[in-house]
Amino acid sequence: MKYVIGIDLGTSATKTVLFDEKGSIISSASCEYEMQQPHNGWAEQNPHDWYDAAISTIKAVVENSEVDKTAIVSLGISGQMHGLVMLDEACSVLRPAILWCDQRTGKECEELTELLGRDTLINITANPALTGFTASKILWVKNNEPEIFERCRHILLPKDYLRFRLTGEFATEVSDASGMQLLDVPNRKWSQTMIDAVGIKEEYLAKVYESPEITGYINSDTADKTGLSTSTSVVGGAGDNAAAAVGMGVVEEGKAFTTIGTSGVVFAHTDNPIIDPKGRVHTFCCAVPNAWHVMGVTQGAGLSLQWFKNQFCGEEVVKASQDGKDVYQITDEMASAVRIGCDKLIYLPYLMGERTPHLDPDCRGVFFGMSAMHTKAHFIRAIMEGVTYSLYDCLLVLKEMNISPKSMLLCGGGSKSPLWKSMICDTFDMPVETSKSAEAPALGVAILAAVGSGIYSDVKTACKKMIQSDAKITQPSAQSTEKYRSYHKIYASLYHSLKDNYKALACEN
């Protein structure tokens, strides 16, 4: 039996999972770390925290599994996308990584758009200039921290910084690189036009691979610290959503999934690079060679519920600890007691600005319709419904592009909630199936590792061998769909009513 490792480098934690060649979990371990927000709308992390988390979790799964290290043939890394890691000539980290949800680069996005034109940006990178993407972050450092920019010699994404530490190789792959706004997405290679626009050299960027390709091998330092073998290969891996797609078998035309994690995504596979001319959704290279995916993103999905829990649910946190339950199980039960529409309370989940469909870094969260009758349970359900409406906005854009899935897979932490699953099912008006694996991104890159190491011939074959479905399909209720759609119309109108006020608020000191 051969074994593969999947590492999921997330925003709140890194999780490492050891799988056998049938996709069964042998052992797993996770390690949390913090995100810093030094200013409103900023988000940063220390790259060394990712490395420390990866080393400790790899070591734990190797030791706990008792599998011979030579049988662990390959490793893949899934990573939070868009983050900017800058290294100097000595390969030392120059500043904290600027994360995917950071919104500081509005002026830089305007600068890129003015320099190249919106149409050129979309034609090359399949997306307009967006605050979350890496290119505008590079420009922000150039404009605001010129001494750091001048010392920069390597630019990496979060998972590719970890790859460098594990292997000594500077490498990336097409799915994650697509989110940098430096890649020619239709042609799957770096764009010299974009490189020139941000004022760097191509040699600062890592070599681009397809996701299942071998990019290097575990180096001796990593082997000493983790117990892995230096014969263990490291494949390209994938950005978090591309990895989750592989882990759920969304690797062919007509398949789609929705994830509710820190952010939320509606994701559909396509064999052709279909691009929204309005730039409301992202078209990226996917982890299947010579294929792409289209996805809409809401920034503050699970983040919204986590924020509310941290600020206002201390009593529920204590109760969960006493009862040996997950606090989100308690909040789910509270929200389930409130009827659809939350007695006319509506939430806009724009805690970190928004991507789909608004592309607005200045918008912020709103509770609309509050009255004295509303309880904590109403607010919890309103958050869940607001996130669902935001994800439905993503689906509507895909349908405009003639991408119309007939069913939906659901994954991420929010998929554990029966209530959230029913909200997605009814609002989308389509059957929803929950992915059996709670570790879809880690399984996805483990599948890529299995292909890279030769266990399986291609990604589709590996998915059929390593993925199991739980076959628990939820069907929509026509009556509930009508109610959710009615509230969604009000929800959708609120952004347009508040748009100018968001901009005015952003200009205040």
Care to describe what's here?
- With 509 residues, the chain is an alpha/beta fold.
- It folds into two domains: 3-248 and 439-469, Nucleotidyltransferase, domain 5 (2-Layer Sandwich), CATH 3.30.420; 258-436 and 477-507, ATPase, nucleotide binding domain (Nucleotidyltransferase, domain 5), CATH 3.30.420.
- Helix content is 41%, strand content 20%.
- It has 18 helices and 24 strands.
- The strands form seven sheets. Strands 1, 2, 3, 5, 13, 14 and 15 form a seven-stranded mixed β-sheet that branches.
- A hairpin with a 3-residue loop joins strand 1 (3-9) and strand 2.
- Helix 12 (314-323) packs across helix 13, helix 15 (418-428) crosses helix 18 (478-507) and helix 16 packs across helix 17.
- The radius of gyration is 22 Å and the shape is globular.
Concise overview:
This protein is α/β, with parallel strands linked by helices and 509 residues long. The strands form seven sheets. Strands 1, 2, 3, 5, 13, 14 and 15 form a seven-stranded mixed beta sheet that branches. Helix 15 links the parallel strand 22 (408-411) and strand 23.
Strand content: 15-25%
CATH architecture of the largest domain: 2-Layer Sandwich
Largest sheet: 7 strands, mixed
> Could you give the count of β-strands?
24
Task: Briefly note the structural class of the backbone.
Answer: alpha/beta
Mean pLDDT: 96
How many discrete structural domains? 2
* Terminal Cα span: 61 Å
Helical residues, percent: 40-55%
What is the radius of gyration?
A: 22 Å
Number of helices: 18
Shape: globular
> Which residues sit in consecutive blocks of at least 5 with pLDDT less than 50?
none
Instruction: Predict the CATH topology of the largest domain.
Output: Nucleotidyltransferase, domain 5
CATH class wording of the largest domain:
Alpha Beta
CATH superfamily of the largest domain: ATPase, nucleotide binding domain
